[in-house]
Write a structure and sequence with these properties.
Elements (H helix, E strand, L loop, with lengths): L1 H6 L18 H10 L2 E7 L9 H6 L5 E6 L13 E6 L2 E2 L9 H12 L3 E4 L2 H8 L4 E6 L14 E4 L14 E6 L4 E4 L25 E5 L11 H13 L3 E3 L4 H11 L8 E6 L7 E5 L6 H12 L26 H6 L4 E7 L6 H14 L5 E7 L17 E5 L9 E2 L6 H10 L12 H12 L3 H9 L1
Parallel strand pairs: 1-2, 5-7, 6-7, 10-11, 14-15
Antiparallel strand pairs: 1-3, 3-4, 6-8, 8-9, 10-12, 12-13, 14-16, 16-17
Helix pairs in contact: 10-12
Length: 467
């Protein structure tokens, strides 16, 4: 009977606490924030989702009050992007960092509203956790208490200078501001508030779709040198183009999202990319190499993007006399393999993996063995070239594909064998559209020679370890 009754149950509203909180305006809102000690108001422009707040609402139910209101009355609360959560205490705005719009960071932000606004950092690991937060944070180094100039509602972190030593940061007693947007920690002179904002934005706490474009450099890893040339260039560009473009240093999880969306995960840095903020998988514009460090070039590049005159949507290397004799580039890739009159076998490699050099040597040997056959060998380096659009982004390197002559509309045949000279030659001949048979060759001697060149001797490794 219970099962039958549940079958007739109708959910009238979306599930989640964020969908059931009241929507207030004007006098109603004023009464609400005055009547509770601590309240978070979500200012909304339209019907933006605040599902990210469900965890915090569940965790802090009864401790914080949550309500929604309208963007039209948010102008006094520094709301430029929506949704815009603002914290109040006894009717007054709490000068905390801008709320992150993700479940766990937002929950932490809310939790810090209900604890004492003096947070003591006692270990380097606690400082590391602060450096992984998003926003701007005021830190007192070797101080006993908060500055008298800070309001009681403002969060203040107190840390010993010794906590900074593992991060190679030499700081003395004083007040500092750490900013997640550009990963800088700066010593304060005068009003600390003027140090908390940057032209570069942190995408975790910024609605990037509030500008038509988002642009930045892809930086290696999470341990980013934010005094680097790239950061200086981003600041300079942001001062000129921030009304149309959010400038962001791409690193960590956000960089992974953009790399997947833009199909650029294998490209080598330096790499500057402009994305359409409301369509990250759509057209994007990229500059690779030293040109990306030239401000005048970047300036013109962005002007052309904004005026619709930039055609740099494909990253493609230039074949020169110094290029590998089998090299092929993305620009004109399909035109070349469809018009060479042969089957085309393409080895896709990346500079990120040194073992690719061994596979290139095997590929060169296969090309030599099958010289005179109607099989054209190519090498595509995706450290310097986009992956051709009809291929999925490789999850490993290297990859080997065969396009049959005259069948350009078909997907290529993917090599799945062992990476040996015998398997590569067999794959090339067996799938050929020209009924080829493999010639005789000494695969054992070829493999032994390549192994000697690329696989280190175990005795050498033991000697190096002892040293």
């Amino acid at each position: 009977m219970l099962v039958l009754l549940l079958g007739f149950f109708h959910v009238k509203h979306e599930l989640g606490l964020s969908n059931s909180i009241p929507v207030l305006k004007d006098d109603e809102l004023e009464i609400k924030i005055q009547s509770h000690q601590k309240t978070v108001v979500f200012f909304l422009n339209n019907s933006e989702s605040i599902d990210f707040a469900n965890f915090a609402m569940f965790r802090l139910n009864g401790t914080l009050s949550f309500v929604k209101s309208y963007s039209s009355i948010s102008s006094n609360f520094d709301c430029n992007d929506f949704p815009c959560p603002v914290a109040f205490q006894n009717g007054r705005i709490v000068n905390t960092v801008k709320a992150p719009l993700a479940p766990v960071p937002f929950s932490t932000w809310c939790y810090e509203l209900v604890i004492n606004n003096n947070v003591h950092i006692n270990t380097p690991e606690e400082l590391r956790l602060l450096f992984n937060k998003h926003g701007s944070f005021v830190i007192g180094v070797d101080m006993k208490k908060r500055p008298t100039t800070m309001k009681d509602s403002e969060m203040f972190y107190i840390a010993s200078s010794s906590c900074f030593v593992p991060f190679n940061l030499n700081v003395s007693a004083g007040i500092y501001v750490f900013r997640s947007a550009d990963r800088q920690i700066v010593r304060v002179s005068g009003d600390y508030r003027k140090y908390t904002k940057t032209m570069i934005v942190d995408p975790v706490i910024t609605n990037i779709s509030s500008r038509p474009y988002v642009a930045g450099f892809f930086l290696e890893g999470n341990n980013v040198d934010m005094n680097s040339e790239e950061i200086q260039l981003l600041n300079k560009l942001a001062h000129k183009y921030s009304e149309k473009i959010h400038f962001v240093p791409f690193y960590g999880g956000f960089a992974s999202i953009l790399a997947d969306a833009g199909r650029i995960g294998w490209l080598e840095t330096p790499l500057f990319v402009v994305f359409q903020s409301n369509n990250l998988k759509g057209q994007r514009w990229a500059i690779q190499g030293q040109k990306a460090h030239n401000f005048e070039f970047l300036d013109l590049f962005i002007e052309e993007v904004l005026t619709g005159n930039n055609n740099n949507s494909v990253v493609s290397s230039q074949i020169t006399q110094d290029s590998h004799p089998l090299a092929i580039e993305t620009q004109g890739f399909f035109e070349k393999i469809n018009n060479d009159g042969k089957d085309s076998i393409v080895l896709i490699v990346s500079k990120r993996f040194s073992q690719c050099n061994m596979y290139i040597s095997l590929f060169e040997e296969a090309n030599r063995i099958l010289e005179g056959y109607k099989i054209q060998f190519y090498i595509l380096n995706v450290s310097e070239n986009d992956v051709p659009q009809t291929l999925s982004i490789p999850s490993k390197m290297p990859m080997l594909y065969l396009w049959l002559h005259g069948k350009d509309i078909e997907l290529p045949i993917e090599f799945t064998g062992e990476v040996t000279i015998a398997d590569i030659v067999e794959f090339s001949v067996e799938h050929s559209s020209f009924n080829n048979t493999a010639p005789e060759y000494d695969s054992d001697s070829i493999m032994a020679r390549i192994a000697e060149q690329y696989i280190p001797n175990i005795n050498d490794l033991l000697i190096n370890d002892e040293l």
